[in-house]
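Supplementary notes for students who missed Thursday's class. We covered one full example, reproduced here. Read the sequence, then the structure, then the short commentary at the end.
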Amino acid sequence: MGINYDELILGEKTDFFLRRLSINLAILGFLLHLLTCFLYRIQYLDLSETNDFFDSYLDSLYTPFSIILAYEVYELIRAIPESFSNSIGKQFEVISLLVVRDIFKNLAEIDDSNVNVIDSDVAFIAVEAFAFTILFATALYFRKMIHSPIVSSSKEPAIERFIHQKQKLACALAVVYVLVAAYSFTSWTIGFVNGDNELSRTVFFLDFFTWLIVSDIIILLSSYKHITDFLQLARNTGFVLSTVIIRVGIGTPGYTGTALFILSAVLATSVLRLSVLDWENMTPEEE
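Structure (token representation):
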């Protein structure tokens, strides 16, 4: 009996194991980081140029959120075979957590700052908080409004093959995810030891979303074999465009990057809403 790699990589047992592991690691990482911050505060620990990572207790929030984000990225990969819309909704869940992690980082910098005038920093955090609200609302909207006509017609052999192809693609992306994560963590650790303790959202996520766009485009092109309706094709193209905007936003610092996140959310929400309205207005014969 051969090994079912789809079930091994994306199955419920693997998901349950990784979920428990990520929660335990997040708790452990938070406590260890918090302890390190305390030791730094009492001047018991001095890591020379890496002290910026421990100079505020708020810095300790970065570690558990990074671990939870790693798990949520896996959940995003698992959603790919279900439907295009599900995976896009998961993308916004991931990005909303990424923005929250950035907010914690920026708050930690303010918490340790001796500068009296920090209005510009507070203004940027306010914009990020607004972006998080938009992204979170978008993720909730996708959960509520998603219709998946592909799944409903999965009895057709061609559609079953398409879903199977997406499962294989998701498995391949999971392997890429592990490789990119290992490379990013190793590179960041080496830089951290050498004194480069910059906490940036580009670490891992910039490369991963590049590969995610590749997988989305493959799915989009493959769907042309099974979906001839222009509205469905336009919807999927709009979703790919929102992912590209997210990818650009990740690599763009400051207000521009945050504005791109908001733009992506507005675009994806609008595309989904229009497609849902079209689906609701279809007659039984058209469905």
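Commentary. The CA atoms of residues 48 and 177 lie 32 Å apart. Residues 148-154, 282-287 have pLDDT under 50 and may be disordered. If anything here is unclear, bring it to office hours.
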